Please model this.
Amino acid sequence: MKRNILTILLCCFVLASWAKDVVWYSGRGSVEYSFVGKRTGVVDMALNMFAEDMRAVTGHRAEHRAGAVIEIFELDKMRDKDFRRLQRRQVPIDRIIAKDDAFAICVEGGHIVVLGSNANGTAYGILELSRLAGVSPWAWWGDVTPLRRHYLALASDYLTIQWPSVARRGFVAQGHGLDSHRLHQLLLRLRGNLLRHADCDGRGAKCMEIGERWLPSTQPGRIYAEMKTAYDQGARHEWVARIDNPRTVAYQLSLFMDMAWNITYVNATNIPSHFHAWLTEQFGEQAADRLLPVLTEYYHLVGIRRPEQMNVEFMADAFGNELERYLANYEALVKALTPIAALVPQERSEAFFAWVDYPVRAAWLMAVKQLQAQEARHIGRPSSFARDDEALSSAVRSWTAYQQLLALNRKFSGMLDGKWEHTLSLAHMPLMAEPKFPGPLSHDAIKRFAQQGPEPFNLDVGNTITRNACHFRRATKGVQTVSMLGHSMKAVMVPPGGSLSYSFFSELRGKAVVRVAAIAMPDYLGHDIRLAVRVDDGEAQIMSVRPDAHSPQWQTAEQRGQVIINVDVNLTRNSHDIEIRALDTPVFIDQLMVDYDPVREFYIFPVTAEQL
Model:
């Protein structure tokens, strides 16, 4: 008897809990809405997008009907009597009415109420409902097919109130053959209001290049650091992202626009959480859990060198062969993808290939193609190439990667019946050309070395002391570690006048060089990168680098992602201290090394796993 009573009480509790939800789709019919205001072009566009989104989610277009559960109000276009009637309801009009592009969604009187302060705000509020229904802003551009839903509801206490941090927010798309209508739709979904055909200008405006034509290789931490610094320095009127094709840089553009919408949404330490949330939206939480560490390592490797700029020589004889370790790290990423793909819903398989599988594999193959061709040219000679097994092995690995890269590009261009055939424009890229070797490759050589892969080489730090900058002994107020930035993936922002301190013990005595790697990031106010480096009680050495796009030094630094500053020192066998101080503007310190070989040639700072 007691058990029956408990069961009845439990059922009543569950039913009462459900009763608190306001259902806007119960599995039958269409999603319905009413609209109060004067419909304009941007609102009409948003309503049509919402109607089609609901068709994808429920099987039926959303329909307009008086008295519907969803009520949409554009405050600045309402008639006085309608506005007065709305004021008598418990809805947050006063919190958004004086703000441009603001919206609110709440539950009141058994209705889901969407308020927009103006046309843009109303459109953003409408499309927020699409997001709540599981429709990604990248549904068309990313082929993120919405999953079918049989029940849509909001809790009775649901409330969101949003408005932009940056007044004008958008992008300039420089790719060929892009659909202007689809670009405007994407702009609305990302809560933007500016689709430019030229760069931004004027006070309070900031442009950022995130538009790789081929692969997404701008680190998320770089976007955060550059844009947040600019915002703090006064860039609050207009943000414009320069892109080639939105599809290529989906997460980068999402992060950029999210920051422009709400500057507090992302901070220096929660960038991985933001990335995880975005991956969950596209592929589901289970796949996102597995993808986050894989794609974090991807951004680590492309942060060391962008695939489209893989024209630098990694040193096979530096620190136990930095070249082979770099390629081995890439290959490990590729192997990790196969089991993750099985976790992605079938409807999202094209998106997974375009945003995950293709970039990781293409970056890996480009690195193998370029670096192994360089190695073959470095060790081989035209007169003896056909008999040089070491040079031939590198050449075959490069040639094989090139063939696989061509096949991968054909697969990308042919997906979805050629929908994206003309978006992967690689003809202009010199690095996509066939690799060059000291001599021709024979079929016999290709057959002999076809199965050759990266060789295991352990890190040998040699006579160096190397650390990621985040492992400081002491830091002044305002110092922040930025996730997913730099070769370390944990570069440290030092504000003007702030400093980092490090201690080390030198087993050797004599001449050495302290190498400080700072992020190559132009300052919004145009300042040089200036810092002071002091060793022990010696005089601080002032180092300065000018972010000049025409300077070979700066071009090299931008491609590497690091400005390397070298300070000559004379060390004793003793404990020593290093202080790094930012002078005029925020400086992002990535790594540092005490190197007892001042003329050493290398590319990657030899940081051990314990120092990561």
Notes: Residues 5-18 have pLDDT under 50 and may be disordered. The longest strand covers residues 510-519. The two ends are 62 Å apart (CA to CA). Residues 241 and 553 are 25 Å apart (CA to CA).
